[in-house]
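Homework help board

Subject: predicted structure for assignment chain

Our instructor gave us this sequence and asked us to write out the predicted structure in token form, then describe one feature. I got the tokens but I'm not sure how to describe them. Can anyone check?
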Amino acid sequence: MSTSFRQTLSETRARDVMHSPVVACDPATDLRDVAAAMAQHRIHAVIVDGISHDPPGDRLVWAVVSDLDLVRASVNVAAGTVAADVSATPVVCVDDTDDLVVVAAALAENDCTHAVVTDGVRPVGVISTLDIVAALVADDRIATA
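My token output:
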């Protein structure tokens, strides 16, 4: 039986392919430490945890520092620059129960490569466009002809 890309994505949940645990840092984290975390974990994005509070529910708002954010900052970084200062990557949040069609659409709509996966309250993982591509490759039901 062959299947389509869309069928594979609709049958796969974010929690099935996300990277967990979350690699996060405090907004005041030095950029060298953010870069070290990326290198150590071989990842392209670190969540900046609790960047601000969003009334009225006073829920935490996260940010993301991507490898590209760090590269951009390296050109004109000032002494004392921290994670909160360079977290330019838009944050896309998806639920861990969302299927990959929803995740892919959110990433494409926001021109992002990483999404924060939440359990409805807090980050529980990160999913990238490469994770979605890997899910497609892993499904041997997809027709190649």
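Reply (TA_rk): Your tokens look well-formed. For the description, you could write something like this. The CA atoms of residues 45 and 66 lie 4 Å apart. That's the kind of observation they're looking for.
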